[in-house]
Write a structure and sequence with these properties.
About 40% of the residues lie in helices and about 15% in strands. The strands form three sheets. The chain has a five-stranded parallel sheet with strand order 3-9-8-4-5, sandwiched between helices. It has a two-stranded antiparallel sheet with strand order 1-2. The protein has a two-stranded antiparallel sheet with strand order 6-7.
Length: about 250
């Protein structure tokens, strides 16, 4: 994987300490999150009092088993992701992966061993321009971090492919995001490895779960036993709207 033009500058100690403090504060907060997609719930809402699911996950269950995030997309965590994604400070990936590994330890996903880790693919031209796929870099670092914790994991980054280039999801609302990604992802050259596998799909940020749903659907259709999603950060939805009938 080419990292031409990327920076390996170390992350300063202040940023590291701020991220640790932020993660600790989030862990001790009374906020409630959807037990499937990890979006924030209103503690007094009907959803929070019943099965722990948000309205979207209850109305249209996603093809993934759940989303595990290392924190919310704000503060120092947001800054670190921007350093990785836009400033090409690739040393940030190891730090973010370590936080993701801690979150996954708490989710007890190691009971689903062995675990096959893959990443949301970029379109070839976009990856060439950036010099690397930030989700794949996170996935590679996560494999290392989880193995240090005794997990039975391995990475395979040819399970999925991106068939065409799309507009940036950050520019779109929920319905536009769905349309933007429809039919974009397909099974990759190592699709035979998907059947009966427990798969952990890695993305840098999850907002509406549009990308996670589309990629997970491809993996499930190809025979995956179960798909989980792990992300460096969980952002809040760009709008509140139901998914309706999957297309």
């Amino acid at each position: 994987m080419s990292l031409d033009g990327a920076s390996r500058l170390p992350v300063c100690r202040t940023c590291l300490e701020q991220l640790i403090a932020t993660s600790a504060a989030q862990s001790s907060s009374n906020a409630q999150f959807c037990s499937c997609c990890a979006t924030r719930l209103d503690a007094g809402s009907f959803s929070a009092r019943q099965d722990g699911l948000c309205e979207e996950c209850r109305a249209t269950p996603p093809p993934f088993a759940g989303v595990v995030a290392s924190g919310q997309y704000d503060g120092t965590l947001r800054q670190l992701i921007h350093l990785l994604k836009f400033e090409r400070v690739t040393s940030v990936a190891a730090l973010l992966a370590e936080r993701m590994a801690e979150a996954l330890d708490g989710a007890l996903l190691q009971t689903q061993a062995p675990l096959l880790i893959t990443a949301v693919p970029l379109f070839s031209r976009k990856q060439s321009e950036r010099g690397f796929n930030q989700s794949r870099l996170l996935a590679q670092e996560l494999v290392t971090a989880l193995r240090r914790r005794g997990w039975d994991v391995r990475g395979d980054y040819a399970l999925l492919l991106r068939k065409r280039e799309t507009r940036s999801q950050s520019e779109l609302n929920l319905s536009q995001r769905r349309a933007n990604l429809r039919g974009v992802f397909g099974a990759g050259k190592n699709a035979a490895m998907i059947r009966d596998a427990n798969i952990l799909l890695i993305d840098d940020i999850v907002t509406t779960t549009a990308t996670a749903r589309q990629c997970s659907a491809v993996l499930v259709k190809a025979g995956a036993a179960q798909v989980w999603v792990a992300t460096a950060a969980r952002s809040q939805k760009v709008e509140v709207a139901g998914w309706g009938t999957p297309q």
